[in-house]
Amino acid sequence: MAGHLIQHNYDGSMSPLFDEGPSIEVLQQVWPRLQQWLAWRERSSAELFRFLGDRLQLAASEVEQVGNHVLESGLIDDERFANGRIAWRRSKGKGPWWIRQDLRQAGIQRELAESLLNAVDDTEWLAGAMPRARQKYQQLQARETDEQTRQNKLRQFLQARGFDPGTIKAVYDKLCAEAREQD
């Protein structure tokens, strides 16, 4: 089991993964399950500390020691986690308000979440909203004869996905322009 606690270096040598901190017994006890958990997907530091305490049932001092060592090793990085989470949620048609709440629930600090979300250009948010909004708008055109009703339902649809009023207006304007071109 101690073999799990050795890292292979680029020069071919091997060294202990952790030089100091939690006892080797604690690491040997939790490392296999921790590795398996980490391999499943990217994790946030808050998820790590919850996992160590709730799932592995370590004492508070051990949670802190093991958690800090994992963070120092670079196995978990909140910025990397948040960037991946933003990209994944955007690919699913979610907007910044929805993603902000998702990051908050994952334990990402507000300042980090804001800086990463602000780095996404408005045109990228618009591009992410368009495919699902276009599909919804086509459904609404088939069912609703009143344009105001279509607009309200599309707005509600996009708000539920976390898009801001400016993006929603831009999406609606673009969909109306596309509809006029088809006529």
Walkthrough of the structure:
The chain is mainly α and 183 residues long. The chain folds into three domains: 2-76; 79-118, no CATH class; 122-182. Helix content is 70%, strand content 3%. A two-stranded antiparallel ribbon has the order 1-2. It is elongated. The model has no long low-confidence stretch (mean pLDDT 90).
What's a quick, concise take on this entry?
This protein has 183 residues and is mainly α. It has nine helices and two strands. Strands 1-2 form a two-stranded antiparallel ribbon.
Number of domains: 3
Strand percentage lies at under 5%
**Strand pairing plus helix content: what structural class?**
mainly alpha
- What does the largest sheet look like? 2 strands, antiparallel
Succession of helices and strands: EEHHHHHHHHH
End-to-end distance: 69 Å
What is the global morphology?
A: elongated
Number of helices: 9
Tell me the Rg in angstroms. Answer: 23 Å
| DSSP strand count | 2
Unreliable residue stretches = none
Q: What is the topology, as strand order, of the major beta sheet?
A: 1-2
Mean pLDDT: 90
Kindly state the percentage of residues in helix: over 70%
Keywords for this structure?
183 residues; 3 domains; two-stranded antiparallel sheet; 9 helices
